[in-house]
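Contributing new complexes? Match this layout with iron/sulfur cluster.
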Amino acid sequence: MVDTVWVFGDQLNRSIGALAEAQPGEVRVLLVELTDALATRRYHRQRLHLVLTAMRRFAAALEADGFEVDHRRAPTLLEGLAEHRREHRPGAVRATEPLSWGLERQLEGAGVDLVRSNQFLCHRSDFAAWAHGRKRLVMEDFYREQRQRLGYLVDGDRPVGGRWNFDAENREPPPRDGRDWPEPLVEPLDEIDFDVLAGLPETAFGADPEGWWPTTRAAALARLDHVVREVLPAFGPHEDAMLTSGAGRNGANAWRLNHTMLSSSLNIGLLLPGEVCDAVEDAYRSGAVPLASAEGLLRQIIGWREYVWGIYWLWMPGYRDLNELGATRPLPPAFAGEAPTAMACVAEALGGIEERGWLHHIQRLMVLANLAMLGGVSPQAMSRWMATSFVDGSEWVMVPNLIGMAMHADGGRMATKPYAGGGAYINRMSDHCRGCRYDPKQRVGEDACPFSTLYWDFLARHRERFAENHRMKRAYANLDRLGDRGRIPARAAEVLALLDEGRL
Ligand code: SF4
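Output block (do not edit by hand):
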């Protein structure tokens, strides 16, 4: 009897876990492409296309390497496994530890043997050991230990350049020089892409892909090489800025600025985090990129990304249901594609999702999730929506980012203060407000920026919870100085009604 190695759509790499140990002729590889389950939620077409196309190409690559592959379609993963077992009668079925808590429970229940995963640089058990006994799980502490443990940008146990963190240099507003941003690499679509697109469920939304998101390992490696040469040298300073795409002097690539767009490849296994970090280290050591840029990207990969991964496994399953601020408003109709919006920053973000299924982190954090937190939208609704709307979305990404970081639904277990911001922040970090129907400086009245109104109203509503937080004392002092603060709650109620009705 031949054993089976079951590979999931977010583990598409020969070097990962169970597949790394497998040899052609010794095992059969199973891939299950979901049918019915994909229609039960409103996924972005580019997300579904990415995973399904990458699975088909990965299956073909394994066959070319001599593996026997059972790539089948089934309503659910477990039905796919049952059909595989009936047909092939494998000795044992092995899988690499999956990336979802729920799937792991299913695999255990189905008698699948789990092999330790090497898809992340810090295994979840090592993260749990790091977290054990700590009062606070501070990302910066974790990141520095990762740097030392893995040996990236360090001399001995000290950071190269004498500093661990160049964040302060990476928060600049958009440049005003109308510069060109690096042209992204694009993969032309072929008949496999078109075949996958033709079979997507009608419930899927968004534009068809234009080749932004690699679907093979070779294309992902080419993207990494392009990023190191073209993007990384100027990565960093403007990573928090937001520009209106294609407008005026911004150019056609303003939507991505100097972001790497590697997350879709990393999150389905086409790239491994160590490969990205090695490339960053080499580029810095060869003098091709400045230290602040190299450190900025390294922080995203071995700091934030691995930290979020560890938090997910440490605090699941209870973590995804936390709602400490009692936020129960449904997803705004504009987010669900059921209404337009006059808020220029929100329209730009939603347009980016529609066109590409991707936004950079500040649009996700300080526009969409910020509005949702200020407006009391359910963090669970937001987390589900983001997991299905982004090409790089999945539960392990969105639960910590939404429940912990963006919406403070965990009551501060992860971030010591809520990432709340009004129109002033968006005005400083973007060019959106210039073309907006609302005025970021107004808090009350019909022209008031909804972010500004809701920001001050949020602070007032949660005074008891946040006023004693030392990182928020200045915000409360500012609130108490506002001459119009008595009129803010009434305008906030109007704004929320308009948000619910899809008329904001
Ligand atoms: Fe967004 Fe307010 Fe600026 Fe309009 S004025 S773009 S709603 S922050």
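Reviewers usually confirm one structural detail per submission. For this one: The chain has a mean pLDDT of 93.
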